[in-house]
């Protein structure tokens, strides 16, 4: 992750006072506001090219016509620590759909201007520091809420293109385990509120159920995220 985050975290662990920069999402968003659909299952792969590189697999399951849940697991790699396991999950409830129509006289229009969904999410990562005289390992746990908006556009060629954006607010909990040779035995833990934004495009080619994603994340883990979902 960012050099500033790790540097400040190390100093905080030794002084038991201070502030750590946002760790940031390790998964990105890679979803539109549109619900998967009751009983539908998608298997996905994700690549994060950000301050830390991540490789993630996901399973998304439609829980109802307007809600779906997703489990995510993968690996994260950074120059400051070994490749580590990351875990995450989120729920999404679609509250608006442009497919909802209203009739006014002889005219029919969409009731809502775009698709909108909201729900909770969690992320967890524990990583070890290599050859650090002060820190042995650290754990970051994030829990928060996300708001996702998107708009489906059907092209003349039959493809579906959906620009989307996600805003999230979360609590980041950070804790450290000190190395045996550290000059203090006082371990450190802290939490803070953080914000993040993702903006991208989902593309479903004509005649296919596979969806491709590309987005930019502005967060503590800034960068580009790519993904694909295969319908099972």
Q: Could you tell me the strand content as a percent range?
A: over 45%
Helical stretch tally: 1
Q: Provide the spatial order of strands within the biggest beta sheet.
A: 1-2-3-4-7-8-10-11-12-13
Number of individual domains: 1
Which second-level CATH architecture applies? Beta Barrel
Class of secondary structure makeup: mainly beta
Order of helices and strands: HEEEEEEEEEEEEE
Rounded mean pLDDT is 86
Span between termini: 34 Å
Q: What would the principal axes of the Cα set say about the shape?
A: elongated
CATH topology: Porin
Report the count of strand segments.
Answer: 13
In helices, the fraction of residues equals: under 10%
The biggest beta sheet is recorded as: 10 strands, antiparallel, barrel
Low-confidence stretches: 1-20
Rg, Cα atoms, Å: 20 Å
- CATH first level: Mainly Beta
């Amino acid at each position: 992750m960012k050099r500033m985050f790790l540097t400040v975290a190390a100093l905080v662990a030794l002084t038991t006072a201070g502030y750590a920069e946002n760790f940031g999402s390790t998964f990105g968003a890679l979803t539109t506001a549109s619900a998967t659909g009751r009983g539908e299952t998608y298997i996905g792969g994700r690549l994060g090219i950000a301050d830390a590189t991540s490789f993630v697999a996901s399973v998304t399951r439609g829980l109802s016509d307007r809600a779906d849940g997703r489990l995510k697991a993968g690996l994260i790699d950074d120059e400051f620590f070994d490749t580590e396991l990351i875990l995450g999950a989120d729920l999404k409830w679609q509250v608006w759909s442009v497919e909802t129509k209203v009739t006014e006289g002889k005219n029919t229009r969409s009731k809502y201007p775009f698709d909108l969904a909201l729900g909770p999410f969690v992320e967890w990562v524990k990583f070890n520091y290599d050859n650090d005289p002060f820190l042995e390992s650290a754990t970051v746990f994030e829990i928060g809420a996300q708001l996702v908006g998107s708009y489906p556009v059907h092209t003349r060629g039959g493809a579906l293109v959906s620009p989307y954006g996600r805003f999230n607010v979360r609590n980041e909990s950070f804790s450290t385990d000190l190395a045996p040779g550290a000059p203090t035995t006082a371990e450190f833990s802290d939490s803070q509120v953080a914000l993040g934004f993702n903006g991208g495009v989902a593309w479903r080619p004509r005649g296919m159920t596979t969806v491709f994603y590309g987005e930019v994340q502005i967060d503590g883990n800034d960068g580009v995220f790519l993904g694909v979902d295969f319908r099972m």
